[in-house]
Amino acid sequence: MASEGLDEIKAVGFPVYPGALGENITTSGLDRRLLRIGHRLQCGSAIILLSELRFPCDTLSIYGKGIQGAIYDARAMRGDSSSEVWGLSGFYACVIKPGIVSPGAAITLLT
Length: 111
What we know:
Elements: H1 3-11, E1 40-43, E2 46-53, H2 67-71, H3 74-77, E3 91-97, E4 107-109
Antiparallel strand pairs: 1-2, 1-4, 2-3
């Protein structure tokens, strides 16, 4: 989950913060709009593969009515990365190479 995305969600009135959406990793400086399924990232000494876009479940409703629609739409559901909300709901990832990821660790897009 991109911290910049959390800022976008806050700007439209939802009181979210790092970890609020159930994410395990919150990034800074990665443009969610440029991330694609199949991209590999190095997080600390681990390597992960973005496997799918996260579908926002009903448990997020505690942050306000309509949050799901604000962070996920039909185009994103179809895998259309030109959606305005592409990546705003975050991504699921698979661990390709285990490693240590500490707070403040660098996250780099590999491919």
